[in-house]
# Entry
Amino acid sequence: MKKCFFALFILTANFSFCQDVHLARKWVDTLSSPFFWGRGYTKNGMTKAAEYLRQQFISFGLKPINNDGYFQQFSYPVNTFPGVMEVSINGKALQPGIDFIISPESKGVRAKGSLQQQDSTHFIDAANRVVISLEDKLTWSVASEKADYTVVQVNKKVLDAAPSTIAVNIENKFVSNFKTFNVCGWVKGTLRPDSVIVISAHYDHLGGMGNDTYFPGANDNASGTALLLGLAKYYAANPPPYTIAFFSFAGEEAGLKGSKYFTENPLFPLKNIRFLLNLDLQGTGEEGITVVNAWEFSKEFTHLNEVNDTGKFVVKINSRGKAANSDHYWFTEKGVRGFFWYTLGGIKAYHDVFDKAETLPLNEYEDLFKLILKFNERLMK
# Structure
């Protein structure tokens, strides 16, 4: 009877965790859907995503850090493309996101003109201040300024001949004071509530380019957000000795705006942070993970490897030094110890329209989840 009970317990525990993996898939699917429109700057995408995360935090039972609730509001300038997005070269209409993208600092323009070749990849319509740049891969980003020219980056494979004529109709809108929110909550520790372990992940992505094209951002960073949500749900049901804080940052793609604002306007003393773990690009992992700040915080990196050696969670942990490539950066600049880790292998979609939920395996979600739990246990000793 005892053996049967133990077997039932194990099966129930495994089923429960499978349900968490199922939830992670649901969160990625939801956050990558057209409703959130790339969690960016048009169609209210970022604000919708912030509210969705706030509702998740409430449902888990996380407590707000901010006295005004779970939101920490801030603002910054951004160049957006809310409307028409039409480009034809040599009389051929190009498909936005797949055949071309607009450089994010570009101004809107409606014009027709002739193109003069500057070099093997650049062609200019000087009269209308339009530049054509031929690219092997189209990778978009976010700009906090508007230029007095327009750059159209074109997938060189879609053209049969060198560009000679162009027709463009592009709408941009520069927003000088785009308002958004960091979403913050925590689970207070049972023994040492003033010692805080932070789990962070940016929830924003690139948004949309025109009326009909958006960038889903499944791996970047719906995947990290889903892992944060899974951990938040777990710790809310299993409060640990230390406080665990969860920061979902906005504005990462625009230059780490949300994390910079938080470190300049902290909701609690940064000196209380025992360690920060920033999660981005968590959707793959069959080739392991890379840890930024491994060389700076060698003691914690040793602990992480010891935990992984015991549990065999990921196949390899690569070390990397300091880098200003995600939201950990501003914290470590303020003296907070912390890692940023990202997964390796699998799909190569990044900052493009192909970073979709249906192509994201989440094959190491369970192992990453367990590795974080065990690493946090080690930090709390």
Residues 1-16 have pLDDT under 50 and may be disordered. The domain at 19-78+176-379 is CATH 3.40.630.10 (Aminopeptidase). The CA atoms of residues 241 and 381 lie 10 Å apart.
